[in-house]
Specification:
alpha/beta; Rossmann fold; UDP-N-acetylmuramoyl-L-alanine:D-glutamate ligase; 2 domains; 11-stranded mixed β-sheet; 7-stranded parallel β-sheet; 18 strands; elongated; binds ligand NPW; binds adenosine-5'-diphosphate; binds potassium ion; ATP-binding; isomerase; nucleotide-binding; Ribokinase-like
Amino acid sequence: MTAHDHRHSLYTVDQVRALDRRAIDELGIPAYELMQRAAAAALVCLRQHWPQARRIAVYCGPGNNGGDGFLLGALAREAGIHAEVFALGESRGDDAIRARREFEHGGGTVVAWNEAVALPPVDVHVDALYGTGLQRALAPEVAALVGRVHATGAPVLALDVPSGVNANTGDVPGEAVQVQVTVTFIAPKRGLYTGLAPGYVGTVQLESLGLPETLWQGARADAELMRPQTLPPRPRQSHKGNNGHVLAIGGDHGTAGAIRLCSEAALRGGAGLVSVATRAEHLIALNSARPELMAHEVNGPQALEALLPRATVLAVGPGLGQGAWGHALWLTALDAQLPLVLDADGLNLLAREPRGFSGPVVMTPHPGEAARLLGCDTRTIAIDRYAAVRELAKRYGAVVVLKGAGSLVADPQGRVAVCRWGNPGMATGGMGDLLTGIVAALMAQGCDAWQAATLGVSLHARAGDLAAKHGGERGLIATDLLEPLRLLLNGRDA
Ligand SMILES: NC(=O)C1=CN([C@@H]2O[C@H](COP(=O)(O)OP(=O)(O)OC[C@H]3O[C@@H](n4cnc5c(N)ncnc54)[C@H](OP(=O)(O)O)[C@@H]3O)[C@@H](O)[C@H]2O)[C@@H](O)CC1
Ligand SMILES: Nc1ncnc2c1ncn2[C@@H]1O[C@H](COP(=O)(O)OP(=O)(O)O)[C@@H](O)[C@H]1O
Ligand SMILES: [K+]
């Protein structure tokens, strides 16, 4: 990530405030002018998305987000759009107060919101309630307004942040406005891209308000958005020994599916060879379903040790269980001094028996596994996914993928990458097993832990989107991702 690539850099709310301050102090642009520019950009965005809009309602909160709303109301009126403006609370701060006066001096009337007020019929609602200053869950009367806005069925444009969404973390502590478009100002706030936020933000459109690139140069960003990537073409003389050997370990009694999905994804992820260490009862099914896999009966540590010398990467956990068999294989795998991908019971065992690693490791917890690893509950993970993934990476000395909408990848030094792809069709059993196999395959082909995790997460999520594009989200199953995965891996997704 380069410091000035601000469209792929994500910022904390404090970092955005520091950028605002620099624009004001170093570039000499008054805060009120920034507010005017924000309102002008919002009007352009409104017209771009809803060119037919003739009537809008703008709901203004007490802070500067509300100030943006009053100025948008003023500009919309000048542009011949009927704008009804509602205030929730008295404006606080010079700029917001001035913005409200500007709207009123232009002939606009501000209606003080209360529950008896009828919502006007409008083409678009504009949410200017709270932006980066949101401190807590929306109050009940504001939540009631949000419910009524939703009930109209008309689209909503959010200014900067949908109200109720924590722009710093992506958490939504109570109700929040669900919008079609979020026009966000100056810099992308990291909270818009992960956790609960993706369910509210709609399309996020960044407006830099005419500020020069120099503003972002040298400015600290907190995280980076993943970009579409692939691997370079294989050398023509490549042979299977050049492309790594994944050994997938798991599949206790009754959980053959998980290890099959993981190992099949490793094949489709381009590993030269894929072996499976599993229970004897799964061998025939595995071999007949996917003859390219080399399935081995492994009763205990000795049988596993015999397979280790040929492996380049171990994928440990899918269907492993936490019984004596799984635990013994897990211990052997962790002592093997080979690169590891740890998932599912591989992580649950680690939560029970914390330990360090000697080689490169990628851990792929979903929020439930992350909570077990950190000894907290899943709500604590959701409150700040950025903090959780960083803490996991630091505590375990590994690259960690925190899965779920807006998957995050962190390394122990605190670097974080954010995945903006993926869809709720992927909320079905087996999707995580695929990710484990893909990441292992990429490590086997020479990617380091960070590259394998970020590329693996992005390929997996984009494959999910491509599969959903063709057949829809509902009913999407893990194996549907394998063919699109292969296309994406070879840069053939067009
Ligand atoms: N600075 C700049 O250069 C630019 C800033 N810009 C705009 O300013 C926005 C940030 O403005 P902001 O800092 O005034 O915060 P904002 O989001 O309006 O809310 C703060 C107010 O809300 C209140 N409050 C908070 N949560 C609450 C809750 N749940 N329920 C009830 N009240 C709650 C809080 O009260 P308090 O909690 O302090 O009592 C305070 O009064 C930013 O998102 C962007 O739109 C643009 O114009 C571009 C240039
Ligand atoms: N709503 C969603 N949006 C984006 N990605 C999702 C969503 N739901 C699930 N996924 C992805 O699907 C995978 C599910 O993994 P996991 O929960 O481990 O499933 P399983 O254990 O059934 O294999 C993760 O990579 C996750 O990020
Ligand atoms: K808002």
